[in-house]
């Protein structure tokens, strides 16, 4: 078959269109996944409105707490989980994936007062609360809570019931 024949030319056109189509689909998939996870700077506001979020330890934990660390990250945890499960990574756990995604994100830190309350000024939107508390008896509590910060939700209570993990050292 000659290179300038109509059949060869039609095959070239079909292959060129297939290449363009596959490039478009690949770009669309990258764009869609990038728009699912919006990691933003906590110092900038998505809506221009900021809310004071009050984080309170339940009363029974206040007296027993020896140290509390509270960090808030401007991420949509549900979207991160969806992305992790859509693309399984052999041998990697979600915690490793999350740590890698949050590596360059600066958290908003809050510290508790004597009554077990902390206040953080956050922009409205999706946030992730990560808190750790050491108790006097050697027990450690950890919280991992997805939050949708809005004017309507301005209070979160940390208790034994909503703790992510409880560990005890002997």
End-to-end CA span: 82 Å
The helix tally amounts to: 4
CATH fold category name of the largest domain? Immunoglobulin-like
Sheet with the most strands? Answer: 5 strands, antiparallel
- How large is the share of residues in beta strands? 25-35%
Main sheet: which strands, in order across?
A: 3-2-5-6-8
How many individual β-strands? 8
Rough shape?
A: elongated
How would you explain this protein's 3D organization?
The chain folds into two domains: 1-36; 50-168, Carboxypeptidase-like, regulatory domain (Immunoglobulin-like). The protein has helices at residues 6-36, 59-62, 77-86, 94-101; strands spanning 50-57, 65-73, 108-110, 117-123, 125-135, 139-149, 155-158, 165-168. Strand 5 (125-135) and strand 6 form a beta hairpin. It has 170 residues and is of the alpha+beta class.
Question: What's this model, at a glance?
Answer:
By secondary structure, the protein is α+β, with helices and mostly antiparallel strands. Helices cover 31% and strands 34% of the residues.
What's the structural blueprint in terms of helices and strands?
Blueprint: H1 6-36, E1 50-57, H2 59-62, E2 65-73, H3 77-86, H4 94-101, E3 108-110, E4 117-123, E5 125-135, E6 139-149, E7 155-158, E8 165-168
Parallel strand pairs: 1-7
Antiparallel strand pairs: 1-4, 2-3, 2-5, 5-6, 6-8
């Amino acid at each position: 078959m000659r290179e300038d024949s109509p059949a060869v030319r039609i095959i070239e056109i079909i292959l060129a269109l297939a290449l363009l189509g596959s490039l478009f689909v690949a770009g669309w998939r990258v764009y869609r996944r990038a728009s699912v996870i919006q990691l933003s700077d906590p110092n900038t506001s998505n809506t221009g409105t900021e809310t004071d979020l009050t984080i309170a330890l339940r009363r029974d934990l206040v007296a027993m707490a020896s140290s509390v660390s509270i960090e808030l990250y401007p991420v949509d945890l549900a979207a991160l989980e969806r992305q992790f499960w859509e693309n399984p990574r052999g041998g990697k756990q979600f915690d490793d994936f999350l740590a890698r995604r949050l590596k360059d994100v600066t958290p908003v830190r809050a510290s508790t007062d004597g009554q077990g309350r902390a206040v953080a000024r956050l922009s409205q939107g999706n946030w992730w609360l990560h808190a750790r508390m050491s108790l006097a008896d050697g027990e450690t509590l950890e919280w991992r809570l997805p939050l949708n910060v809005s004017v309507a939700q301005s209070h979160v209570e940390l208790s034994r019931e909503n703790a992510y993990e409880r560990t005890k050292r002997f």
